[in-house]
Amino acid sequence: MKKTKIKDVTTGRSSLKLKWKKVKSGIDGYEIQYSDNKKFKNRTGSILISKASATSKKFKHIKYGKKFYIRMRTYKNVGKQKVYSKWSKKASAKLNGLKVNK
Prior knowledge:
By secondary structure, the protein is mainly beta. Helix content is about 0%, strand content about 50%. The chain has a single domain (about 5-100), classed as Immunoglobulin-like. Strands 3, 4, 6, 7 and 8 form a 5-stranded antiparallel sheet that branches. Strands 5-2-1-9 form a 4-stranded antiparallel sheet, with no helix packed on it.
């Protein structure tokens, strides 16, 4: 299964917008994992996006001045289980109102 690539991370005062390259076929959705630890050890959150055609996600109400690390992977439903691809390269962003590249 193909993994996806993070294209861009844009930050605002209390929001973060993540854009990624869409995988053309063979997937059912994406999983995004975020953390304030670069090894994703503690205070980690995860979001499942069940729309395979999605290419962006906006996170709201994030603490200003905090640095976040983000990675994502694709998944496909096989029976009652999800089969995941490998994680994308991680991107980081600090919420300070500036645009940040991966």
